[in-house]
Amino acid sequence: MPKGRRDVLLRVANVNPASVTTHTDRVLYSAIGVFILLYFVYATIGGAAFIDAGSNYQHPWYRWLVGPMVAAGVVAYDRAVVGRVAISYEQLESTDPQHFLRKPTFALYAGRLGLALLFAVLITEPLMLSRYQGEIDARLNEVHNQQLSRIDRTGVVGTYAARIEALKRETAADDAVVSGLTDRAAQKRQDARKLYQQAVTDSAGDGVTRAAGCPSGGSCDQLVRRSRSLDDEATALDVQAGRLLDTQRAAREARSEEQVELTRRIAEQREANEVAVKADAGFGARTAAMWHLVTSDFWGVGVFYLGITLLLVALDCAAVGLKFASRGNGYERNEARIARRREHEATLIHEREIQDARTYGEAMARVVADGIEAATHDAEVARDSAERASAVLRTSVVVPPEIRRLSSHNGRHHRPVHAEFRHGTDEAGRHRSPLRALPSEPE
């Protein structure tokens, strides 16, 4: 295989191909690159399955956008873990390989493994829910029916149903009163028919008296009278029942309307409850149903669930596990040598720059001190020269006493020199002609 193609898997594993110098390390990190590529496909499908499970398996189109992003994040984490080498920057001058790498800590391993397991569980669980979708749907249907039954008993539907039963009992009570009257009327009519039949039998000579005909005051006549009296009483009871129905009509209509309204509300509430309960089929509900299946039927579902889950978790942790197992190999030592050499060179250069800066500062301080000393010396020379020139001038030029008096103040007099001249000339006659050259003093 050409070298460029062999380096592709090393680049996928975030490994520097230049530091992979042995066949063992090349095979190791190539295998890590293969696991990372496989895991990218696995994480893409898992992320899409997570979005699909969260939408009650409506198969939204954007799940294939979320899946690759989740996979890219997990793969980036794995590449960061695999490509990281714990280099020790202490004792940079040492060439002992034991000083190249830092000692691993339990927290570092636990943190990396914990994050890898977290990613694995979050991505593996949606795949398992998709695998057992049929069993989970059956369990959710059972759970939803139980919820609907409980809501009908204890919720607002139960309240409405109890009110309808109370209205029915009130209507039944009214019907019982009316039916009592009508039953009594019917019984009286039945008794009247029996008495009349006895009267007819008696009139035919087949009665108790064995006398034919129905003379006034006789047994037959009494039976007829009693029959007619019972018919009248039955008619009165029917009239009373009719009047009672008239008085109950308004209450019956009100109860009937209330029953219709309550029935409509019950239908609406049951429809709303069914929609709400059926909507409770997201990721959490399916996970709970999956756990119920695992615990209730461990040998039928739980064993395969745990086996597949552990297999997928092992696939996720394979890259990180190989990284942990290969700590301190030739690749990491090569990377540590390069990094430690660069750090050592940078440290030496930094020390040299600090030393140069100190030397430069000392030289600049020395130059400034010499300049100040030379300037001080020049100022003293100029002052001495000025004093000598002044002395020579005083000895070689004839100066009037007034000028001598003024010059004795070292130039710090209160009035200008021309004022002194003007004052002297005013005393001599206030002339303004310029002074003529004074005669030299006799030797």
From TrEMBL:
Residues 417-430 have a biased composition (Basic and acidic residues). InterPro entries: DUF4407. Residues 406-443 are annotated as: Disordered. The chain crosses the membrane at residues 27-50, 106-123, 298-322. Keywords: Membrane, Transmembrane, Transmembrane helix. Signal peptide: none annotated. Pfam families: DUF4407. Residues 406-416 have a biased composition (Basic residues). The keyword Transmembrane helix applies. It comes from the Bacteria. The keyword Cell membrane does not apply. This is DUF4407 domain-containing protein. It comes from Paractinoplanes abujensis.
